[in-house]
Structure formats: C-alpha cells, structure tokens
Amino acid sequence: MASAIFISCEYKSPFEDYKERDLIEKLDLSADWIKDFGVTLEPTSDSSYSDAYYLNFVNLISKYSNFEEENISDLTDYWIPSPDSTPESKKPEIFEIVKASDVMSGNAFLHVKLQKNPEPQYVSYRFNTVKGKNYLFKFDYKCISGDGYQLSFSDDYDISSDNFKFFQQTNQGLVMIDINALEDSSKAEIRFGYKNLYSDAKALDFYIDNAALFPVSNVSISKELCIVDSEERTDDKTCEKFYEGVYKLSLNVKGSSSKIVSLRLGTRFKEYDISDSWSEITLEAQILKSHKYLSISIMPTVIDESRRFPGGIYITKPKLYFYPNKSSPD
C-alpha cells in the first residue's frame, strides 16, 4: 500500500518585504528631489530631528515686506524714493515707516505721499528676474487721499521708461498684479507712481503693508517615481519597484514664517495648518498605472495661487509606505 505524501505550503505575499518600510529612504532630499525656482531648501540643525530642513517660499522683496523691522536706517537701500533732481524727478512728499496697530492688519506700514508736480514722484523696488517667468506682486493698500493706486514697471531700471502701467480706483484692500514674462533683462523695477508718464500721475497719499513678489507657480519640492508596467520609465534612484495600490506619505513639519504646508501624492492634494511645534502629517492616495508616475510634492504655502504668500517651514525627510492589501486610501 502506497504511503500518502503531504506537502505543506505556506503562501507568502510578494509584497511582504514592503510592510512598514520607507520606500524613498535612499533618496537625498537636497540632491535627488526637484527644487522649483521659487523655493530654497537648506539643511538645518534642530534638537528634535537630525534630518531637518528649512523649506522657504522666497519673497523677492527680501526686506521691508511688512515694515516691522526694528532698524529702519537702511530702508532706502531697498525701497528707493525718486531723487530730488529737477527736472527729472522730485522726492516724495512723504516717505516713512509708521508704527501703529490700529490702521492696517500689522503693527507697522509704509506711508507714501506723491504730489502732482511737473517733476515725477515715485517709490521703487528693484529685483532680479528670470526670462520667461511670470510673477505676482501683491500688497495691502489703504488710501488716505486720492482716488486709487498707480503702479508702473520697468524691465530695466537704468532707463527712464514705464513699460507697464496700472491704475485702479480703490480705497483699501488686498491688491494683486500679474507681471507676465519680462524680457531678457535680469533687473526690473516696480514703482508706486510713474517715472516718465507723470502727465498721467495723480496726487496720492497712501499706506502699504505685507508686500510680496514671487513666481506665480513653481514653489515646491517634488519627486516622480516610476510605476511598474507604466509606459513612462525614469531612473528615480530609489532602487525600489512601485506598483498600483495605496500609498502613504509621511513627514514631520514645524511652522516658521509660514503656518501652512500643502502635500500632493499622485492626484490627491491636501493643505495642513501647522504651528511652531513639530507635528506629523500624512496623506494617503490610490496610485494607478494610468497615472504614469507616482508624483510627490511639498509646498510651504496654500494650493490656491491667489492666496499664496511667501514664507518658510521646517520639514523632515519624507517617508513613503505601500499598503497592497488596502482597497482605498483614508
């Protein structure tokens, strides 16, 4: 009589090795992630985390953006008043920082008064540009007298011309101006008032605060990972295979001059309010081969471009986990 042979088989999931393992651990945040034109990423020391970084959404108005600096002696190195040089120009009637808490949202603001004279009066801010980039200039505005604000732009501050001119009747509020694709020059100038179109100028007396100038988009760090069997293939430097399924992105964050962080994982976006203390944030998403890539991005600001304002946050190195047995993301 033949003896029976029993074979014991234990099924082992091909994804067993993925369980609670960071799939992007090999990536260097400084070297292997894409940093957009509008942000900087710098390693920093922190008592809580050895892998902390400062992610900064850059304001091209690098100083006197909200006018609350204690030392105002170098104001005119940044916001430049028209010189007293008849007949080319005349200095503004008033150009000063005012400290007060009951006029605008902050505790200090810039007070400018421009008279209607034969000679133009203006206050300008100079900045470097990148050809073909679009910018947004935004500021809080309050008119004391006059019938609105007047702005002019030049893509070369060494010549006396107003390439673009804006005027709007408004007493107060948030002003946003699009500056589209400046030309070859790497130096540009924003002016309250007009430099050579002074025949159109009006007498104005106004306050400005919270001034910001930044690229309209391109304000994130990002990484694209290849999906197995996708038509698109790149060397993502992870030494991992990424399959269809549910993924979770995790990182620790702390607010600084920004108290908002936005994450993208695949086609899913989410904003988070953060504080001055470290906290963990996570985002789950379903990734499909049709997405072509598993895309990750981190922004130190909101998703809506019209509500963005420059600022920085602290982040740790992100982690990415795969959950093959999960049918849908949380």
Q: What is the gist of this entry?
A:
By secondary structure, this protein is mostly beta strands. It has two domains: 148 residues, Galactose-binding domain-like (Jelly Rolls); 141 residues, Galactose-binding domain-like (Jelly Rolls, Sandwich).
Describe the protein in words.
The structure is a single chain. With 330 residues, the protein is mainly β. The protein has strands spanning 34-35, 39-43, 52-57, 79-81, 94-99, 108-114, 122-128, 135-145, 149-154, 164-168, 172-179, 187-193, 204-215, 221-226, 245-255, 260-265, 268-273, 279-287, 293-299, 311-316, 319-323. It folds into 2 domains: 16-58 and 219-323, Galactose-binding domain-like (Jelly Rolls, Sandwich); 75-215, Jelly Rolls, CATH 2.60.120.260. The strands form 4 sheets. Strands 2, 3, 15, 18, 20 and 21 form a 6-stranded antiparallel β-sheet that branches. It has a 5-stranded antiparallel β-sheet with strand order 1-14-19-16-17, with no helix packed on it. Strand 5 (94-99) and strand 6 (108-114) form a beta hairpin.
